[in-house]
Amino acid sequence: MALKLIDKFLNGFVSADEISAISKEAADAYDLVKSGKGEGSDFLGWVTLPEDYDKDEFARIKVAAEKIKKNSDILVVIGIGGSYLGARAAIEFIKSPLYNNLKKDTPDIYFAGNNISTTALTELISICEGKDISVNVISKSGTTTEPAVAFRVFKKMLTDKYGAEGARERIFVTTDKCRGTLKQFSDEAGFETFVVPDNVGGRYSVLTAVGLLPIACAGIDIDAMMQGANDAMKEYSSSDLNKNDAVKYAALRNILERNGKVTEILVGYEPYMLMLNEWWKQLYGESEGKDNKGIFPASVVFSTDLHSLGQYIQEGQRNLFETVVNVKNPGAEFVIPNDEANVDGLNFISGKKLDYVNKTAMLATLIAHNDGGVPNILIELDDRSAYTFGYLVYFFELACAVSGYMLGVNPFNQPGVEAYKKNMFALLGKPGYEEMKKELDARIAKD
Ligand code: PA5
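A: This is the predicted complex of the input protein with 5-phosphoarabinonic acid.
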């Protein structure tokens, strides 16, 4: 098992009686996921994906990645939300948050189309100058504003630089199988396309072409990643929370939520977990936050944030709990040097491994936060390999679906995302939104 759930830092916050009282409800929620009888069951493709993924497409992903690695200095990955976060989380977790600065034989990877920032776009355009570029645009709907604008820009950049024929060799499109406008356009333009399966929603799609193509371009072993997910799928095959840590995590979160702990903070002790945290926040936030329900997903990276949000967590409102992800093997070793002068008084840790100090900081913080009234769930990972990443993704996705059903929401829709979009389209003057524009303009004009 690449992942272990540890609940000893919940002592005094969650009782054995509470766990056994909720176990039937948790098992029922798990059965809804497995049987496809719950709400949103059209989007359960991720449940069996680690086994029944499209093997031909998987092989095409590897070929495309090899081509990109050979002919490109830079891969620009265009997408937002579920069409962006998983790939970035994987590359940072498995390779490094400084991936682009590492010595490597794979292209730099930049992410575009995940904001509407002029600065971000113009900076990336200038980074691309004089470099060989490929583009992977990822959008299930094909009509999301942020990636669509970025795709216009990079499509033109590639066509101007390489001509229509050359651009065709360098633009890869990941989208809906047949319905979306992007699919039709790509087929007409002759771009190679990959599929976001109909039955997999954006935030559950990292183990499809959405995540796998950029991840493979970074030189990450996607076979190992799928194997990790596959092993997790087999491991988490019981509805009994005593035999299934994903169900147990879902149950513990729901007990805590019912006890007033309505904010969950995902905690990492490594900078390479920052984007994993972002991916997790989207997964849980979009899946659970609806119908005036949900646990608010927040995140921190310690020890960095112990010097900022640490104060709040220790002594602020007592409505939160933490889920700490501990990576046992740091993958590198560094020993703290001795300093003759000992100005900082730290010679008592000279010769100790830096990771030992990091892990000690974690233990110290777990106890301090417990003492401050903050329950902690601990998730222990063997390492930061592709295999473990795949395993962890499956664990979090399954737990999220089970937890969502326990909360009484449909974990697979995101109706609330539309509200800002409608307003934005109206204010921007999209045809068909004229009446709405008048109303919004009047509200904005009010003193
Ligand atoms: O999880 C989701 O469904 C969303 O975050 C989408 O991934 C995001 O809105 C992007 O949508 P699309 O892939 O259609 O451009």
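The chain has a mean pLDDT of 97. The beta strands are 3-6, 74-78, 108-112, 133-139, 171-176, 192-196, 263-268, 296-301, 320-327, 376-381.
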